[in-house]
Automatic annotation (TrEMBL):
GO terms for biological process: methylation. The gene is rlmD. S-adenosyl-L-methionine binds at Q278, F307, N312, E328, N355, D376. GO terms for molecular function: methyltransferase activity. Belongs to the class I-like SAM-binding methyltransferase superfamily. RNA M5U methyltransferase family. RlmD subfamily. This is 23S rRNA (uracil(1939)-C(5))-methyltransferase RlmD. The keyword Signal does not apply. It catalyses: uridine(1939) in 23S rRNA + S-adenosyl-L-methionine = 5-methyluridine(1939) in 23S rRNA + S-adenosyl-L-homocysteine + H(+). Catalyzes the formation of 5-methyl-uridine at position 1939 (m5U1939) in 23S rRNA. Keywords: 4Fe-4S, Iron, Iron-sulfur, Metal-binding, Methyltransferase, rRNA processing, S-adenosyl-L-methionine, Transferase. InterPro entries: 23S_rRNA_MeTrfase_RlmD, MeTrfase_TrmA_AS, MeTrfase_TrmA_CS, NA-bd_OB-fold, SAM-dependent_MTases_sf, TRAM_dom, U5_MeTrfase_fam. Its EC number is 2.1.1.190.
Length: 445
């Protein structure tokens, strides 16, 4: 393969020696790492170079010469064009194994720690699981139609044209093409850049971002679409605070979390369509059960739940302990968490607004003694919190992570600076058919 900066269209043969963190195959060509879209570990492929970089190159599969025994036929006809999934061509068991391997490598390389016990992976329904997301919209004059979908795999600047989505909640997945038809006939076809979707247990909501006021005709079209397909329609003329329902007048989005114990009541959480909720409802339930198992809440425990959001973990924990406090940086989420506590008749849970990426050691909740700690941070992790927490009284921490590198870093801090041991850890397949690694870890001392 030529070493010039010019991208050659000539295919080259490559042996795939690894699977990257984003699901692409990894090869070495003339001593340089090449990430190959569509290739799997152990395969011999013909690939075509797409883009050169200083330290690595990017390529795509042209032909699979020797397929992996774990290769399967993708279920979605838009796979390889749409960036929504990257691993539909790999069987489910191997997807889980790849994610577990990524987690283990991060623990070893970044945190310099190893779990005393690997938890069995958690997995659920692999199709129709996605209850929240954002669809891009673009009116392409050259094609004479509106495109609605996720970004293209090969070129993220463009919108992938899809008619249906196999991983999306069934209330919307088969209807993506109908959204494109709807928008094509609207006056505001050039001023709607995105549609966000969010599903509760009983209702799917669509939020239409529009850059200009909508005509009465367009609003009527949206209402008719919602009525026909049983979807709640929201409008977003500005920032997140501008979101409001168009139809019906007072839609209600909510989901239940089963307690798994006949003696303990379930919890129901109401939310707004742009609020953070776990994308996979089935896996959220399974994750909750594992979290409670690892946290081992006792009637006398005082628990601190950081990055608590709507109270997804806080309220089920509250049913089992003496006292629980949830802390979250977004005011609206904290407000709704408190409302959810009241709605469920939970009086031993309280909530605070605080930026957990800033020093909060002076806050009253940060100075109190806590028996147990739950962490569920965003991708950046919880290293700023770990500068002043946990206190010596804390004997158990459950850490739910959406990014293995930040979990590994924070695991090293908890083990090497705070005297905990990494008792157990494992992956949770929150996003089947993607390379996203969700995981959970238990720390004890």
């Amino acid at each position: 393969m030529s070493r010039s900066n010019t991208v050659s269209p000539t295919p080259f043969e490559a042996h795939i020696t690894d699977l990257g963190h984003d699901g692409r195959g990894v090869a070495r060509i003339d001593g340089k790492t090449v990430f190959v879209s569509g290739a799997l570990l152990g395969e011999q492929v013909m690939a075509r170079l797409r883009k050169r970089h200083r330290h690595f190159d990017e390529a795509e599969v042209v032909e699979v010469i020797t397929p992996s025994p774990h290769r399967v036929e993708p279920r979605c006809r838009h796979f390889a064009h749409c960036s929504g999934c990257s691993l539909q061509h790999l069987d489910a068991e191997s997807q889980i194994a790849a994610k577990q391997r990524v987690l283990a490598e991060n623990f070893e390389r970044i945190g310099k720690v190893t779990p005393q016990l690997w938890l069995p992976p958690l997995s659920g329904a692999p199709w129709g699981y996605r209850r929240k997301g954002r669809l891009s919209v673009r009116n392409v004059a050259k094609k004479g139609r509106v495109l609605v979908g996720f970004r293209e795999e090969q070129n993220p600047r463009f919108v992938a044209e899809i008619q249906q989505c196999e991983v999306m909640h069934p209330a919307l997945g088969p209807k993506v093409g109908l959204l494109a038809d709807l928008l094509s006939a609207m006056d505001a076809v050039d001023t709607i850049p995105q549609i966000e979707f969010a599903a509760g247990d009983d209702l799917m909501a669509l939020v239409f971002r529009h850059m200009q006021p909508l005509s009465e005709r367009d609003q009527a079209a949206l209402v008719a679409f919602g009525q026909q397909h049983g979807l709640a329609i929201y409008l977003q003329p500005g920032g997140n605070s501008s979101v409001h329902p168009l139809w019906p007048e007072n839609p209600r989005l909510a989901f239940r979390i089963a307690s798994g114990d006949a003696a303990i009541e379930d919890v129901e959480l109401e939310f707004q369509p742009l609020d953070f909720v776990q994308v996979n409802a089935d896996m959220n339930q399974r994750m909750m059960a594992r979290t409670l198992e690892l946290l081992d809440p006792q009637p006398t425990d005082r628990v601190l739940d950081l990055f608590c959001g709507l109270g997804n973990f806080t309220l089920p924990i509250a049913r089992r302990v003496a006292d629980v406090v949830g802390v979250e940086g977004e005011h609206g989420l904290v407000e709704r968490a408190a409302q959810n506590a009241a709605r469920n008749g939970i009086a031993n849970a309280s909530f605070h607004v605080a930026n957990l990426f800033e020093d909060q050691r002076g806050a009253d909740w940060a100075r109190q003694p806590w028996d147990k700690l739950l962490l569920d941070p965003p991708r950046a992790g919880a290293d700023k919190v770990l500068e002043y927490l946990p206190h010596k009284q804390t004997r158990r921490i459950v850490y739910v992570s959406c990014h293995p590198a930040s979990l590994a870093r924070d695991a090293g801090i908890l083990v090497n600076q705070h005297g905990f041991r990494l008792a157990s850890a494992g992956v949770m397949d929150m996003f089947p058919h993607t390379a996203h690694v969700e995981s959970i870890a238990l720390f004890e001392r």
